[in-house]
Amino acid sequence: MANITKEITYDIPDKWQTSTTALGKTSTQTYTGPETVVAHVQNGVVVNAYNKEKEDGRPLAADFIAVEIDCNVNPMHCGILWGGFEPPAHFEVEVGPADRLNPTVADPTHPSEVYDIQSFVTGWDGAAWKAPTFAKPEDDEPTMDDIRASRNSLLTTSDQNVADDMPEAVKKEWTDYRQALRDLPADYPEGTPTYLITLPQAPDEVNASSEVAEAALADANADAGEGVVKIADQGGRTDWQSQLPPGIASDD
Fold first, then answer.
1. Which of 61, 202, 206, 245 places its Cα 20 to 30 Å from the Cα of 28?
2. pLDDT band at 98, cuts 50/70/90?
3. pTM of the predicted model, to two decimals?
């Protein structure tokens, strides 16, 4: 049987990684994949999902159950658990001091960013799929206290790099660097997620060309082969930008 194609309209939160929906925002995504996906569930957890047409007839272990998902009815579950969505685009965003490399974010309106994926993985209650929940910030994301601790550590270790008898040009580089550390994180808009905050680069660090540095940043922030949509190529404002905190490519 040929794949089906379903366009899904789904609720998104008022802001990325929040839970309120007072603004009534929605987004759309297209699912392209099998009409029926089978999820193997063990102790309430989906351990794998596959196209029903690919079943090989092997029996399941005693503690597994097979749950069929009708992708005409639940295309979001099929898209998250099996696949069938295009990967999210990644966008360059301008935030913080002008001398820092701009970070990138995955499209916050994409299902993989809108939803807590674990709410799909653990969503089978034995009779039906529970409603998925919105994504929240990761528990292991650094806090502002972590940012300040890193800043303070760099200030301490760099103190020995400034001496009265060093060339003025070199001294200025270090004093400027240390001032940039002192300005952190106050030089970022209030509410900036910590993963978008970039530490200034010390003068003695190996400083690759901007092209190489930007390429490395793109590799770190984007899925393989997807690349990053640069600010100059983003055109007019779109729904993904309004999902970000104020001051970060946002209309607020």
1. 245
2. confident
3. 0.82
